[in-house]
Design a protein that fits this description.
Length: 467
């Protein structure tokens, strides 16, 4: 068993404004990927490329893997599922490894730049290269998830317990603004593409590449402000990083048996946040098909609309993230999360049964925006208090399995329902099981006990300690 290394936190003080500003800047940087690529453009664009590629073949199958068939319509959700399957295999291992190193900053930088480069490669997406573009997306999404493991682990190192709701919410809020600014630029580019001599397809490809450049440039400068701490655990003599990280991963899972309330929260989070991420990731495909393609409206109109809708969501979500942090102060973090999840469930039902116009989609998007940041930022802050000291990255490696952009159950369900029924409404309704399951399990979780069992303090206890 590896030993805990004595804390050297005093060498790098917590709650340092400069370091927190750098941490927030990384959220600004990577949010361009989640908005422009995942939420707005890449799903419908990849589907359109795949459909064009198989046009005239008499079939919509793009890959026949024997027992598993990928169609033009299911290619994007299947690509998401593949990237997350890889994350499921590697992220917990990376998290365990990070607790034995003092190079979390360098690992964060590596995956930031790798993901940014893969995203920039989406510029080459055409009907002739759409499968390569799907592969580049898989690498980008895998790198995104890996970077967030190390990014989240820094939250515990740079803040005290009483500051985490606030700093976590600020990170999400800052990310919404960053993703929104880039999306506004890309909205203008796609909308006015023909007026400046570009095709809409080229404008979309430039927009996808811009998300990679945005991620890489701003991410570099944000990460530079972070400071490495000493490894929280040391490698025993005669062992190597790979073997000890695999053992540590197993130890982390065993540790969850000692922390049953933390495990219960993780299961709830896996379910409801998987649903949230699937709604975000598949909303562009859903709206494009239900509000435009099904009604015979021009596809170019859907791209401009989707960019505008996601842009609105970004800026409203900024206020929503900060607003729910205030709600959590009044009713508690767990209750605030539950309120947001009930609203999410209502959105799913509305999208299935009533959504029929662009105007309705705008109102639905506003409802999503109000709860989007709160449900995610408060979940991250709450989980940070349920983690034993010295195992932050290992636990976040497991947590990241269903973090932003890394859902896997939802996209698989969505893809299979679309492939079997051809109905995007049936597919969106199928996600309700994830929200209901998450709500029930979270309601039954004793979060106060989870925090104390991990050896940590409630926010009010920490505030009294540090006052």
């Amino acid at each position: 068993m590896a030993d805990l290394v004595p804390s050297t936190a005093s060498a790098h003080p917590v709650n340092d404004r400069r370091e927190i500003a750098g941490w927030r800047l990384y959220d600004w940087a990577n949010s361009g990927f989640t908005t422009t690529v995942i939420a707005a453009l890449f799903g419908p664009f990849l589907e359109a490329l795949a459909v064009k590629a198989v046009e005239g073949t008499g079939s919509n199958i793009v890959l026949n893997l024997g027992i598993y068939t990928v169609t033009a319509e299911s290619l994007y959700p299947d690509a998401v599922s593949l990237s997350v399957l890889l994350q499921f295999l590697f992220l917990p291992l990376l998290g365990a490894l990070a607790d034995y190193t003092n190079i979390k900053k360098q690992l964060l930088m590596f995956f930031c730049l790798l993901g940014a480069a893969a995203t920039t490669m989406l510029f080459i997406a055409t009907p002739a290269t759409y499968l390569f573009a799907a592969l580049a997306f898989v690498v980008a999404n895998l790198s995104f998830g890996a970077s967030i493991v190390f990014y989240n682990a820094f939250l515990n190192e740079i803040t005290t317990e009483d500051m985490r709701d606030k700093v976590s919410s600020q990170g999400f809020a800052f990310g919404y603004i960053g993703g929104g600014v880039l999306l506004a630029i890309n909205l203008a580019l796609v909308t006015f593409a023909e007026q400046i001599g570009l095709t809409t397809a080229l404008a979309v490809r430039i927009s996808l590449a811009s998300a990679g450049l945005w991620w890489g440039i701003f991410g570099y400068f944000g990460i530079k402000r972070l400071k490495n701490r000493a490894a929280s655990r040391k490698v025993p003599e005669g062992q190597h990083y790979l073997t000890v990280s695999m053992r540590e991963l197993w130890t982390t899972f065993r540790e969850l048996k000692r922390l049953p309330q933390t495990l219960r929260f993780l299961i709830a989070y896996l379910l409801y946040n998987d649903g949230i991420q699937t709604v975000i990731g598949m909303s562009a495909v859903f709206l494009s098909n239900e509000l435009f393609k099904a009604k015979g409206l021009p596809e170019d109109d859907s791209q401009s609309f989707l960019l505008g809708l996601v842009l609105m969501i970004q800026f409203v979500a900024f206020g929503g993230a900060l607003g729910f942090e205030r709600v959590s102060r009044k009713v508690g973090t767990k209750t605030a999360i539950l309120i947001s999840l009930f609203i999410w469930t209502g959105v799913i039902v509305y999208a299935y049964a009533l959504l029929d116009s662009v105007l309705q989609a705008w109102f639905m998007g506003a409802a999503i925006a109000l709860v989007l940041g709160g449900s995610q930022s408060l979940s991250r802050a709450l989980f940070s208090r349920m983690i034993p000291h010295g195992r932050e990255a290992g636990f976040y490696g497991i947590y990241e399995i269903s973090e932003r952009g890394t859902s896997w159950i939802g996209p698989f369900i969505f893809a299979r329902v679309v492939a079997e029924t051809g109905s995007y409404r049936q597919a969106i309704l199928s996600l309700i099981v994830l929200f209901v399951g998450g709500i029930v399990i979270l309601f039954l979780t004793n979060t106060t006990k989870a925090i104390h069992d991990a050896g940590n303090q409630l926010p009010e206890e920490a505030a009294a300690t540090h006052s």
